[in-house]
Amino acid sequence: MSLIRPLAAAALSLALTFTASVASAQMKHDTREGEFVVKDFRFASGETLPELRLHYTTLGEPKRDAQGRVTNAVMVLHGTGGSGKQFLRPQFADVLYKPGGLLDPAKYFIILPDNIGHGQSSKPSDGLRARFPQYDYDDMVRAQHLLLTQGLKVDGLRLLMGTSMGCMHAFVWGETYPGFARALMPLACQPVEIAGRNRLWRKMLRDAITTDPAWQGGNYTAQPIQGLRTAQGLLMIAGSAPLPMQTAYPTREAVDKYLADTLPKAAAALDANDLLYQVGSSRNYDPSKGLEKITVPVMWINSADDMINPPELGIAEREVKRLKQGTFVLLPATQQTKGHGSHTWAVLWQDRLKELLEKSGG
């Protein structure tokens, strides 16, 4: 294992939300979309769905060896409230997917799933509302594995990357399916139980929704907007970066205008049940007991201005020592980092991805 604290790279524009909209993304990359349906999917809770729909986006084509095994598959996993299409935004796609880029689709088969409860995959707002099964991270990872092995006929990954929730999924993957991915790149998380301030703001978010009288036990006829406004406010704080935000909004009036312009629209785009399930799915996450099972190269990156994963806790420095081939990188807080959202700005860490690909076999 090793610890690295590199300098951050070139100036970038401000990104503030925990999971921003993909509406402004420049969808100029050649993509394909599909759905894989799992029949009678049984959740860890004992609940089942007759059909679990898993939506995905891909770039590039699978390449197989003489035995028919896919050799160039890369899966990238999104964060809470996101979808696979968030990795088509310019700050990620235009850096990595360009010709000759580190994840050039001419070389790699890139898989961007929408996880359970997210994007165009099965979720509470499809109709079941609060009767939707109470999924957790283990369910989500098992569904990803089924999508790969049964849906796409991919029996191994060249690389598994994940941001935020996807970062946590990467640690679960490394323990649940050891060696399935030849390399792991978790971005913006910790491999321990969600506790302390991280648990606190998540609990406050959920309580804001469930204590809004309009929630009606999840069977609302109109969205519980007051609860959602509080929830969105917490998401904005959790995902913000202090240095660039202070620069962008240096006066009281500027901050107030930003909040008035942003919060109502962002809250109106949320579904209360979907958000409750998304945040609640982390409730039993704790891979800390099995980190020694992960023996492939790991490039783990956090940012020093990440409120959700504050570096002063020292968790990463402690836990990376348990990874056989683990490297932990802490990006220092600058005007260029994006707080928790640094995970999607590839220019900040692409050199470390290059290092990981070289270390794990080119």
How does this structure look, described?
The chain is of the alpha/beta class. The chain folds into two domains: 2-196 and 288-359, Rossmann fold (3-Layer(aba) Sandwich); 197-278, Rna Polymerase Sigma Factor, Chain: A, CATH 1.10.1740.110. 31% of the residues lie in helices and 16% in strands. The chain is built from ten helices and nine strands. A nine-stranded mixed β-sheet has the order 1-9-8-7-6-4-5-3-2, with helices on both faces. The protein starts with a strand and ends with a helix. 46% of the residues are buried. Mean pLDDT is 93; it is low at 5-27.
Layout of helices and strands, plus pairs?
Elements: E1 2-4, E2 32-42, E3 48-59, E4 73-77, H1 90-96, E5 109-113, H2 137-151, E6 159-163, H3 165-176, E7 184-187, H4 196-210, H5 225-238, H6 242-248, H7 252-268, H8 272-280, E8 298-303, H9 315-319, E9 326-331, H10 350-359
Parallel strand pairs: 1-9, 4-5, 4-6, 6-7, 7-8, 8-9
Antiparallel strand pairs: 2-3, 3-5
Helix pairs in contact: 2-3, 4-5, 4-8, 5-7
